[in-house]
Amino acid sequence: MRRTDSPSRRAAAVTAAVALTAATAALVAAQPASAATGCRVDYSIGSQWPGGFGANLVVTNLGDAVSGWRLSWAFPGDERITQSWNGTHAQSGAQVTATNAAWNGGIATGGTVSFGFNATSGSRPATPSSFTLNGVVCTGSTTTTTTTTTTTTTTTTSQSPQPDRPMVENNFPVTREGAYGDNRYTVFRPSNPQAVGRPLPVLAFGNGACAHTDNSEVTRALTFIASKGFVVVDTGSVNGSPNGVPSGSPIPSLLTDAITWAEREHNRSASPLAQRLDLTRVATAGHSCGGLEALVAAQDRRVDAVASLNSGFFADGAFGYPRSELGKLHTPALFMDGGPSDVAYANNQANYDLVTVPAVLARQPQAGHGGFIGGSQMADGMTTVVQFLDMVLNGNQAARAYVLDPSGLASRAPWTVSRKNF
Q1: Do 39 and 99 sit in the same domain of this protein?
Q2: Rg, C-alpha atoms of the chain
Q3: Would you state the pLDDT for residue 143?
Q4: CATH number of the structural domain spanning residue 384
Q5: Which of 82, 291, 339, 403 has its CA 20 to 30 A from that of 16?
């Protein structure tokens, strides 16, 4: 999912296509073209509470395949959307327009896509009377339109664009260093950011036990992530020296401050990361207690994805964060645990069950509580994190297949994978 307040920020950061024109011959002809259009929208209200409700829309494309969708409708009353998932929304008065996320823009003929939201309402919510998909009224049937187009044929020789390379296939050398001007953080980054060939997404990471000085436990895992083309900003000084931050309890603002640090570095001319970061692709993640930090920090509107590893909000609201915090998430979420031997097993399951945003539950019962971070399951665990982030932040289809398709991670025993709202 992309930020609900800025859908345009989800355009691809870099595309590579080099065309060398050898000879051009213009052939102009008027040709008729036909296109079938049609759609159906199933609108359902899943839950209601005093002053609000949650709804889900399933759009079925009855016409020709579309690449990129825009669904519009008018509320019959005073409904105002407060949170949405599987896309972005804009509302002016009663009029609403929802647009696709990076990963669900294509709808094949007969295919479906879902969009959901929570909203306020001063009265009993009612179903909108009509919907349009890309300007076409959804009547449940199709129509065929014929247009005349003028075609200019150009003969060129070109270098074919490279396929959308999954980030997990990268293996860049990594530099681990203290954050410039802020000893609260350690930075893991590709040693030569320019060699990556694209702006670098940012990941703010919280350590297990909410360790805010020593990050040695996660060094191997975060080096793995950075080698794939991420800049990871981790809580903890680079050499374990005191940095004035107490450990043992969640401080989510450390992760949001890490994002702010990245924004400054992007604009600092002497920084090796100057103008090399993609600040439209930002995620939080964390292990155990650091996972709580990541889930709270993910409520920041700059964040586009969150990964909670062996973690979750407690039923009794321990550390001052009740499970109602999950209702504040606006991004897709990954929940990973190490099976019944993981002390966070029940919490992780309960948190996944409660979220209303698009979510993935990935479980490796041999990993226990620490296998993803420092055990023999580290490579598999961090690969899953990278693939999830690549799917959500970049819309990479190969990563999406790895995370969501039965032939992907779910086929790699003993992993089990569940998903919802994707």
Answers
A1: yes
A2: 23
A3: 67
A4: 3.40.50.1820
A5: 403
